[in-house]
Amino acid sequence: MSASDPATARLPEAAPGVPDMNRIVGSHDILLVTLDTLRYDVAAELAEAGRIPNFARRLPGGRWEKRHAPGSFTYASHQAMFAGFLPTPAEPGRHPRLFAADFAGSETTADGTFVYDTPDLVSGLAKAGYRTACVGGVGFFNKQGALGSVLPGLFEESHWEPEFGVTSPASFESQVARAEEIAARTAPEQPLFLFVNVSALHQPNWFHLPGARKEDGDSRATHAAALEYVDRHIGRLFTAMSSRRPCFALVCSDHGTAYGDDGWTGHRIGHESVWTVPYAHFLLDQGATR
C-alpha cells in the first residue's frame, strides 16, 4: 500500500461500509476537524468543480457525503458531537454511529461502535489512553469567559489565540502551525486525539475573496473563497497527523449558514442551508503526504 495514495487506504470494517472503531481506537491517531458554518451545497460544488483539490483527493470518491447537522449553531452542535452524535446521513434509516456513550436503549450503537462509559467522547478517548488536544477557532472556544471555556475544558489541553479567530485572514494557517507543534511533541507511544475548529468559513469571510470589500459584506462567494483558502493548507494538517501512526480523520461542518436564502441570513435557524452539512471520514496512512 502506498502511503501517499489515499485511494488505496482501507478502513477495518465491522460491516460493509461501516468502520470498526474498536479496531481503530488505540491503534490510530484520531483527527476531528469541524469546518465551522460550511454549507453542504458550497462544499459539494467546489469539490465537483475541482476548486478544493486537497480535500477532494481524500474524500471517498472525491465527494462530500450529505448529512444533517446535530445542531443549528456551534455550541449546540459541538455538545452533540462530543457526546458521539456526529452529523446523521441525510437519508431515512437507522445509521450506526462511530462513537456512543454506554446507555440503555440506543438504537444506533452497533458492533463497530466504540462505546465509552464516560460522559463524553473526549474523556472516553482519554480513558482509552489518548492525549486529547483542542485547537479552537470561533468564540465558543476562546476561553475568554465561562461559556467560551466549556467546550475546550473537555480536553487535556486546549489552545486559542486571536490569530485563530474569525477576524484573522490567516486563521487556519495559524491553527495548523499549532496542530503541527502538538503532534510533534506528543510522546511517540501515546495516541493523539486532535480536534480543530476551523473558523475561516464563519462570518466575516469577505477578505478571502480577492477584490471583495468590507462594506459589501459576506456572501456565498466569499464563503466559497474561504473554503478554497482552507484547502490550500489542509494538507499540512493531514501530514502532521499521519506522521506518527495511521490516522483516522473525520471532517465535517457543524452547521451551515444562510446568505439571504429565502430571506434568511445567518444560522441558529431551521433552514435547509443550515441543517444540511458536508461530512467525510477516511484513513490517512502513516507517512501520508500532502
Short description:
This protein is of the alpha/beta class and 290 residues long. The chain is 27% helix and 21% strand. It has one domain (23-93, 124-284): 3-Layer(aba) Sandwich (Alkaline Phosphatase, subunit A), CATH 3.40.720.10.
Structure in words:
- The chain is an alpha/beta fold and 290 residues long.
- The protein has a single domain (23-93, 124-284), classed as Alkaline Phosphatase, subunit A (3-Layer(aba) Sandwich), CATH 3.40.720.10.
- Helices cover 27% and strands 21% of the residues.
- It has 9 helices and 14 strands.
- The protein has helices at 21-24, 40-48, 53-56, 74-82, 121-127, 147-150, 171-185, 220-241, 272-275, and strands at 13-15, 18-19, 29-35, 65-68, 88-89, 99-101, 114-116, 131-135, 157-159, 192-198, 247-252, 258-261, 264-266, 276-284.
- The strands form 4 sheets. Strands 5-4-14-11-3-10-8-9 form an 8-stranded mixed β-sheet, with helices on both faces.
- Strand 12 and strand 13 (264-266) form a beta hairpin.
- Helix 7 runs parallel beside helix 8.
- The longest helix is centred in the C-terminal third of the chain and has 22 residues, at 220-241.
- It is globular and about 50 Å long.
- The two termini are 16 Å apart.
- Mean pLDDT is 92; it is low at 1-8.
